[in-house]
Each structure stands twice: as structure tokens, then as C-alpha cells.
Automatic annotation (TrEMBL):
Transmembrane segments: none annotated. PANTHER family: FERROCHELATASE, FERROCHELATASE, MITOCHONDRIAL. This is Ferrochelatase. The gene is hemH. InterPro entries: Ferrochelatase, Ferrochelatase_C, Ferrochelatase_N. Belongs to the ferrochelatase family.
């Protein structure tokens, strides 16, 4: 009896923290037309002529700061654990493969293994809770581009988003309890940022997105595919699970690139405002990531933590990502079997 195929896909990581490998990773990542959604010629000039030549060595130093001598990249390490634990949970009726959208292990190699074993169908689970064209959409496009030449194509389905998955929400809330959240002055839900132009492209009405303040605060039929609205909804659900009132937390967005306006408020600005308001201790979630990575381990803990202290704050505490949480493996199992 043929197995069912499950393909887990995370964003990606350099093969090593060397400048050469980081440059290779950045080139593949930033040349994706869904990541930098401008004219291909302009994108090539920006990425290969400006961004990677100047950012590769700087980013390599950041990766070196978080790279473990034994396990390497945190994102790849935890992604492998999630793959292993899900395979154990699902048993022999399923074949689970892990891939990265950029670099290795590649989506193409993972799909070929599923094809070689004649799986009856393939369910693709992009490991991004909130849908964005630059993440989930890119994975979907890549998978469809690769299988379009197959002579026999099995049933293929995609998990579009799981921003409101109750098991994921519970896992984040339980991770926070380790840090005694009641001892913090304020809680931040810091999501990965996106350019505003990409958010607007998801508004098929052309008359809703960013037309008024608070358009993303509540998820509705018009903005249900909006990354920002899904992010606010994730934050709301985690806060409710923790019994956290609305005035005790702020939703913000990190990891900007370039000068165009991105989704706001920016995490760096919120950190500054928190310090000016006299807050001393901040608890920070990063619910756009299911595995700890450069954006959580370094950007939040080191960069934002350092900025906060320089402004008079005392401590920024990162709430660990889902990593090898049993509750998150429960969530993946449920998605795989749905």
C-alpha cells in the first residue's frame, strides 16, 4: 500500500556562516520575484550589485554569532527535529520530507524522493503560520513549477496558513509561562516585516488595505488573506490564552530591508517608545517563526536587547519559538492528516 507524502518547507539558511555561503544564500533568497517584487532587471541590479556585496560579510558575522559548532544553524537544527518527530508520530503510512525554500535540503530533491517512492499524494506544509506571498506563496509556486514536468502528478495539496491553530497558540502561550510573564511591564508580538506594497497587493478590492488606521486589527472576510491581519489575529489569540489584556501588549514588525515603507509599527520604534515610557522589562514573542533563527536569537535578544538597555531599559526576554514542542508536533500531525 503506497504511503502518503508530507513535505515540510521552511525558509532556508546558509550552508555555513562563511561570507561565500551567506552571499550564495542571500542571492537565491533575494532574487526570488515574490521576495523583492520589482522589475527583474532592477532586482538583479539591487541584489547582485548593491545588497549582497555589502550585506554578505556583515550577515556572515551575525550567523557566526548564533552558529553552534555541533548542530550548526538553529533554524535547520530545529527543522530537522520537527521532521524527525513528525515522522515518528505519523509512522510507516507516511513519508515525511524536509526542505528549505532556499539552499539545502532543496525542495526539488525532497519531491524527487517522494516521487521515487510512488506516494499516493503529497501534502505541502510551508512552516509559516501567517500567509505571505513572499513565504508561503513562494513555496507553492516553486512546488508547482517543479512538478509541472512530471508525467504523472499525484494529488497535491497545500496548507495555506495556520495562524489561528489552537495547538500552536497553546504552545506559544506555554513557552511564555517559563518566563513568568506577570513579571514583565509589557509584551511585544514582533512579526517579520513586509513592504506595504506587498500587503496592498493582497487586497483584491483595492479599497481596503491601509485606507484607515486599524484596518488589520480585526480579521474579516475582506482582509482574511492579509499577512498583517493574520499576524494581529495570532497575537490576539495568544494574548487571550494567557489572559493578557489588550493594553498590556503591542503588535509590531521587524527585519526591514531598503527604504520603502514596510508594515508598521516597526519593532525598533516600539522598543524606543517602551523605554521612553519607563518600561524596564519586555517579553517578546516572534510568532511568525516556528523555529528559532537569526531573527529571533540574534535580532531580538542581541540587537533589540542592546538598544533597550542603551535607552535605560533592563531586560528584553525572547519567548522561545516552537522548536521541538510536543504541542507543535501535535499540530503538524493534525495538519498532515487533515
Amino acid at each position: 500500500m503506497s504511503k502518503k507524502g508530507i513535505l515540510l518547507v521552511n525558509l532556508g539558511t546558509p550552508d555555513s556562516p562563511s561570507t561565500a555561503d551567506v552571499r550564495k544564500y542571500l542571492n537565491e533568497f533575494l532574487m526570488d520575484g515574490r521576495v523583492i517584487d520589482v522589475n527583474p532587471v532592477l532586482r538583479t541590479v539591487l541584489v547582485q550589485g548593491i545588497i549582497t556585496p555589502f550585506r554578505a560579510s556583515k550577515s556572515a558575522k551575525l550567523y557566526q554569532a548564533i552558529w553552534d559548532k555541533e548542530t550548526g544553524s538553529p533554524l535547520l537544527h530545529y527543522s530537522k527535529l520537527q521532521h524527525k518527530l513528525l515522522q515518528e508520530r505519523l509512522g510507516n503510512e507516511y513519508q515525511v520530507e524536509l526542505a528549505m525554500r532556499y539552499q539545502s535540503p532543496s525542495i526539488e530533491e525532497a519531491l524527487q524522493r517522494l516521487k521515487a517512492n510512488l506516494v499516493s499524494d503529497i501534502k505541502v506544509i510551508p512552516l509559516f503560520p501567517q500567509y505571505a506571498s513572499a513565504s508561503t506563496g513562494s513555496v507553492q509556486e516553486k512546488v508547482m513549477d517543479l512538478v509541472k514536468t512530471w508525467q504523472t502528478i499525484p494529488n497535491i495539496s497545500f496548507v495555506n496558513s495556520f495562524h489561528d491553530d489552537d495547538l500552536m497558540i497553546q504552545a506559544f502561550a506555554e513557552n511564555a509561562q517559563k518566563h513568568q510573564p506577570e513579571t514583565y511591564d509589557h509584551v511585544l508580538f514582533s512579526f517579520h516585516g513586509l513592504p506595504q506594497r506587498q500587503i496592498k497587493k493582497c487586497d483584491h478590492t483595492g479599497s481596503y488595505c491601509l485606507q484607515k488606521d486599524g484596518c488589520c486589527d480585526t480579521l474579516n472576510d475582506t482582509n482574511k488573506f492579509c499577512y498583517s491581519a493574520q499576524s494581529y489575529d495570532t497575537a490576539r489569540l495568544i494574548a487571550e490564552k494567557m489572559g493578557l489584556p489588550r493594553e498590556k501588549y503591542t503588535v509590531c514588525f521587524q527585519s526591514r530591508l531598503g527604504n520603502d515603507p514596510w508594515v508598521q509599527p516597526y519593532t525598533s520604534k516600539v522598543i524606543e517608545e517602551m523605554a521612553h515610557q519607563g518600561h524596564k522589562r519586555l517579553l517578546v514573542f516572534c510568532p511568525a517563526f516556528v523555529a528559532d533563527c537569526l531573527e529571533t536569537v540574534y535580532e531580538v535578544t542581541e540587537e533589540y536587547g542592546g538598544e533597550f538597555k542603551a535607552l535605560g531599559g533592563e531586560h528584553v526576554q525572547l519567548v522561545e519559538s516552537l522548536n521541538d514542542s510536543p504541542l507543535f508536533i501535535d499540530s503538524l500531525e493534525r495538519m498532515a492528516k487533515a
